[in-house]
Amino acid sequence: MNSAVETIPGEPPHAHHWTSVNAYHGAKLGMWLFLATEILLFSVLFTSFAIYRFLYLGEFHSASLQLDWRMGATNTAVLIISSFTAALAMDAAQHGNNKRVRNLLLFTVACGGIFLVVKYFEYSHKYDIGLFPGRTCPEVHADAASGHGDSHHGESDHGAKADHGGGHHQEFCWPTGDNALGLSDAQKEMLVSNNYKMYFGLYYCMTGLHALHVIIGMAVLSWVCLLASRGRFSEKYYTPVELGALYWHLVDLIWIYLFPLLYLVD
Amino acid sequence: MSEHAAAADHGNLNYLNHETTLWSWLSTVDHKRIGIMYLFTITIFFIVGGIAALTMRMELASAGPDFLTPDQYNVLFTLHGAIMIFLFIVPGIPATMGNFLLPLMIGAKDVAFPRLNLLSYYIYVVGAIMALFALLNPIDTGWTFYAPYSTQTKSAVILMTGAAFVLGFSSILTGLNFVVTVHRLRCPGMTWDRLPVFVWALYATAVIQTLATPVVGMTLLLLIMERWLGVGIFDPKMGGDPVLFEHFFWFYSHPVVYIMVLPAFGVVGEIIPVFSRKPLFGYKMVCYASLAIALVGFLVWAHHMLVAGISDTSAIYFSVITFGVAIPTAVKVFNWVSTMYKGSISFDTPMLYAMAFIFLFMIAGTTGVYLATLAVDVFYHDTYFVVAHFHYTIQGGAVIGLIAALHFWFPKMTGKMYNEHIAKIAFVLVFVGFNLTFLPQFVLGMEGMPRRYFDYLPEFQSMHRLSTVGALVNGFGYTFALLNLLFAWIFSKRKASANPYHSLSLEWQTQSPPIHDNFVETPTVTDYPYGYGTPVEGGAH
Amino acid sequence: MFRYLPEQASKIAPSVDWLHNWITDLSVLFTVAICGAMVYFAIRYRKRDGVDHETPRIEGSNFLEVVWTVVPTLISIWVAYYGIVIYQDMREGENEALVINAVGKQWIWEFQYENGKQTVGEFVVPVNRPVKVVLTATDVLHSFFVPAMRIKKDAVPGHYTSVMFTPVKTGTYHTFCTEYCGTNHSGMLAKLNVVSEAEYERWVNDRSDDLAKLSMTPAKLGAKLYSDKGCVACHSLNGTRLVGPSFLKLYQQDGRKLADGSEVKFDEKFSVEEYIRESILHPAAKVVESYPNGLMPAFDGQLSDGELKGLIAFIKEQDGSAPAQEEEPASEDMTAKLAAMSLEELGQFHYESKACNGCHSLDGSQIVGPSFKGLYGKKGELADGTEYVADDAYIQESIWDPNAKIVKGFQPNLMLQTYKDQLKERDIQGIIAYMKTLQ
User: Fold this and answer.
1) Does residue A9 sit within a domain?
2) Neighbours of B152 (CB within 10 A)
3) What domain range is A166 assigned to?
4) pLDDT single digits (tens) A157-210
5) A124 lies in some domain
6) Cross-strand pairs, C126
7) What is the ipTM of this complex?
8) C159 touches chain A (CB under 8 A)
9) C296 in contact with chain A, both atoms CB, cutoff 8 A
């Protein structure tokens, strides 16, 4: 057996061929590669957004006005603070202060929670006023024009679901009845615009995927937190804290691009 | 290097028998066992995909409907394509031979993240089960899932694209693992310019796997969203653009061709020097060529879309850049052939497959030139010429490479020798059958026969019939080859020595099959693994 | 070597083929040279008597590496250059080109000329004049491929793409769909007729078909469409169940049961006209109970408002007051005309007027029933496994009693059973004679 091998907590027996220094660098390289794949994952959405924003500038602009920038800004602040505490946790781990690591990470996870709560309010508000992606329903167009669409879609509170005869799966449609709260006629008309819907389609995909990453990040950091409360970290071994923090920074970074793109840019 | 590490003191203990319970296999983090598990799993899918192909060829043996309906035929070619691509050939060489050999070849005990490796196997299994459900459900879009057909058809598109996403995740994890392994776990003395070409090829492949797969993953998720919620970005009725889907799709699916075929290049680069007793000619050029192909491979995706309605400017760009792939590929072929010059060549089965590979790949490469040439591609796009071309690349390249690798490293993996005569007969059947299947398809393409046709005009019948006969012969060949290996593993009494081919590469310097930890002592490397022959003046490495 | 390209029918074809054949020759040269060297080395330096001989440790040659990097690069540049030049030549004459709009839809090609003339599955162009086909699609991706002209372009829904060619030879050429588009992808063919300039002028300005339609009553127009568009293949007029529901009393029947268990109720919001209109344009929207979904092509975008009204009027007429609609008794004039026709002409007349063309193609492609091309004298297998020979007796029986012998791979009960009353001995002989011309 190689004499340079040291026991690393949490590594499987067969992985003991790593020296601890090598394991640290290897894990970091792996994480960076993984972050690269994450960025590429989002790049598809960013590209799509860029293309369609270029094509449908007007619709995308007016659609973006529907978003509440104050909520977005709150979330941005929350995430930046959480990223900062994650970095502090990393520093604490390097000094072997497990208790401080635990507290800082708990705070970070709590920030993630706040982010999701704010997101929930944003989503549910939009859902209520009917800003939801949906396939074009020919009836809706016809109804919007002739103004007797209420019988088709007006009944349900959510208004978004309607099964169209013969369709093999449920399709979401735009409500055009009274439940489209307090919108002017002009706004109603815009609701029916496909490209307007496309904006929200992309909005939900991008922020939804990001929210999923927030949840995963919270789970990862909670696990690191657990390790910290068991006193696992020392000056020599703090890889999980660093990797968790790296991941959290990425989650933060993506939001920092999403926020201006979706909420602010005219 | 010597064979002293072959470790007599370990007796008969090796990675296969040091633990034998089923659980010890299912929970193993040993790269060798994971490689073997992959091997068996993908072989099952190779058989399923192959049966689908043969059924199609039977239907196409004569013009007009025979025993399938058009819809059944459409399901079959989707089944064949999706299984062969996502379940067989993408994990093909990297996840099987790569997993088994990469740590052995660089003198490591395992890959960088052994548990991640096992996780990626199980993710693959989950994806495979999803895919099977989807394919039997069925799905009829072709493996390319082109929108808007895929957003409109009633078949199981969500399940299949979901499966492809999961499989992609498995592929990313394997690639990431390999990159870190090559960077961090090389044994003392194993510098970058001493890495075996197979490792170089796996490294280039792993980079592509890691960087290209997320793009298709997201694309497929968007397709699911499109069907589910109607986001509209690929749907022309909502202002979306189906061509955008093609761009995203090929951004991954062109590089994926190199995921399939680069490792096969690596295999051939390992086999030829050993059986020629000569150093690999232009070792460095061969290694750099792998990287160059991986790199340029990212820049050429839209040559799959030259007639899809992209602008003339982009068509010209993608046509020209595509020629950029041809050059490093040609360099590789020249180097392999030059390696044989003044060698001492023996014709063991792996060498026969390697030579067949060169011939088949010459045809694959040169027919690729037609398709890269703008004016000619306009004629050939989506005809049988394309079908024949990519089967020469994927089957003639990647599958033949995998079979060559299986024969070459079989003694190392199992500790047994296979029956050489049956292996050679199988080789002849595979080679003849393969060419008989696909050469007529080039002719069909030249005559203007479009692909994915359930039925065809009567004048195409004779070539279709030849092709069907070839496919049957080809199928028999693979069956013989695989059964021969399987029987040898189970029943053969002929034990393989640690290094039956007197190779200089590290994996042969440990016992066959290797011990659980690969090497008794961490090896130290002093030279690159191709130092065969008597030194001559001016020939130093 | 390997000269299998189809006939050169366009101005650009010789240049494309020239480059193509150059690539072929270079490819063969390189393949033979490299693989020849490989085989030569393999034989010349083979291991003899099972003992390795001494080999030199040659590790590479920078000179050779440069040579075999530079030579393929130069050849590639040459080929790529001409590929681009010829590609650009394909658009020559764009400004004076004859423009035809083509629409791909599952699974037909529809063509429209500048003067409004429309055709389906067939288009005509004059020889020696640049033609620009502007392409789009209504449902999924299609691709427009005329091998003899060496052109291809995808038809993309929501986009307009175009191809150009200048035909140089009169004749009939195949047009394929080369982008997979679903069930009948391989049947999505069209015929390209290249004719002389004069003939083209006559053809394109011959609007008698359209004029006839204009002067018809809606119900008459509907009756014509009923056979022209092939409705007749699947919807009977006498209550017989074919592939789809019969038209008999369809208009008058309220409360039809649908496949999903619901009923169609007509009221002021959803009239019977709207129901028929929807069922023609989007057949999948409401599927009648016990009938399969997905068999009927959507006619969305293929019928004008007037044509739809015609069909609805025609369906309204099928109220059972007239015993199953019959062919108008042939007038004296018609009888004389028919008698004067040769057998082949008579057969062709029936092929078109009795709507055989709805289900039996002339070019070998399969629609609903077997193609007439090469049918006469053909041998094959029936659904019950026995053999058949398509001789006179067989064809007569197949027309008069279609279910007597069903060819393997085809469905029974699809063909109308009423031809026995409509086609007499001589008519059958005519059809057989016509088939003989289609070998």
Assistant:
1) no
2) 16
3) 136-180
4) 333 333 333 333 333 334 343 333 344 455 445 445 667 778 888 898 999 999
5) yes
6) C195
7) 0.92
8) no
9) no
